[in-house]
Amino acid sequence: MTPLITNPRFLRVAAPLLIGVLLLLVWQMLCTVLEVPAYLVPTPWLIAKTLVGDWGLLSDALLVTLKITFLAFALSVLLGVAIAFLFVQSRFIEVSLFPYAIILQVTPIVAIAPLIIIWVKEPTFALVICATIMALFPIISNTTLGLRSVNPGLLNLFKLNKASRWQTLRRLRIPSALPYFFGGLRISSGLALIGAVVAEFVAGTGGTGSGLAYQILQAGFQLNIPRLFAALFLITMTGIVLFLAMMVLSRMALAGWHESEQG
Amino acid sequence: MKRDNQHLPPLAAWQHKDIGSAVATGAADAVLSAQRVEKTYRNGTRALDEVKLDIQRGEFVSLLGPSGCGKSTLLKMFAGLEEPSHGHIRWWGKNLATVGAEGHTLAMVFQEATLMPWASVEQNVRLPLELNRMPRTESNLRVRDALQLVGLEKFQHAYPRELSGGMQMRASIARALATRPNLLLMDEPFGALDEFTRNKLDADLRRIWSQQDLTVVFVTHSIYEAVYLSSRVVVMAARPGRVIADVPIEAPGAGGMRDDAFRITPEFMGYCKILSDYLTLANQEGGVHDTVDH
Questions:
Q1: Which residue of A has its CA nearest to B109?
Q2: C-alpha span between B125 and B142 (Å, rounded)
Q3: Which of A157, A163, A257 sits opposite B114 (nearest CB)?
Q4: What is the model's pTM?
Q5: Staple A219 to which of A157, A227, B262, B279, CB 3.0 to 4.6 Å?
Q6: Which domain, by its residues, includes B263?
């Protein structure tokens, strides 16, 4: 019986999992056979044990990072959409403000994070600002592009029926922009996490000192490499879960009609 | 400059009107009237040169011409989507802005179906009614009628991507018909369809037109389609875009149904020949206009 093997949906999940398991086995074997010390490369098994053993510490850190990531992500979605709506109101507004959005995007967050951390007293808020700056741009640019990417024929149809600005926005521009917006969400969710971690690194011990990045720093100082890997694993998992969540969201919203979510 | 129609060959066997003759029937009560309409683009291209055209209530007028003759531009002006550079257009003798207030409506069908991909057929057809804030009970009735007219009543819940090209076009026509328009503007609506589907839609369109109080302006570059559908064909030439002939199609079933048999009658062929000669003329640029054989 082979139908499960040939089923593309099953394959899409099973194949990467199989590769993952194989790699972990090879890793475990190499470390054991070559007797690599745990302070250089810990075995997957040791990392898993550390993850369970240090769960109290790590889960607290995870919650802090998650909080910053979600706050920054939510803030960048709200701000990004608002700015995109502002941009499509007139070419003049877009032309005068878009360069500043680009400046925001191209300035490395590591370079301005120290400033923000100095300026903003409340540490969580400072970290959220850093992560928001990181995650904001894809939402602005994608949503703006989407709101402008309207079928000209449909736009004529709305004009012909004397549709108001609001009707055109609600019935035509917003639905047309959705696929672009969700593309932006996907990029932005990952960036919010990266922004949160980077900001925590910069804040270092000067911050509240309890996020995952702080745990990685501390573990590095103490040569507690298994804990470092465990924290790293949690960050990666958070990123993957975020990405998958955005995929599900996009699928739920677009499955009925958009080409990108067919099949 | 002399107008080209003065060089036209005598077409004794077929009565045809010269341009401007329609004015005799009265521009005042015309559904649509173009008065010396010109369009020059900013780069200096003359898209249309002094077009005079009156379209009466109940006519099915095709604008026939090679690409670049400005027939689509003229139709966009008829829809109010473009402004003429010179001259003006009147709808029921009025400006477009005041037309709606008097209960006259116009609708347009585009080259592509231009349906909203996120909405079902039924929602697409309802759109113009909702934009005009029509009460739900009334719009339900109209949507049902329109879908029935184009034969899509079984597909009201389907999404555009689930439909064939021909069916998408039917939905697009239903959307236009749902507004119960007095004037229907169609811009090469069946150009992208295969011939069989196209003939079928032509026949259905002709039936719908004959059953309703509907004036149609139909842009096409197909001679056969123009003759089959129209009560009158306006032939246009390119560079600059202008009207060179205005041919009434006074053939069997002129006021009503035309079946497929019409396509193989001598009358049909005769009209095709006339229009083809005019188009040949239209495609000759500059000089020699007076050697057209019959």
A1: A157
A2: 9
A3: A157
A4: 0.80
A5: A227
A6: 7-105+181-283
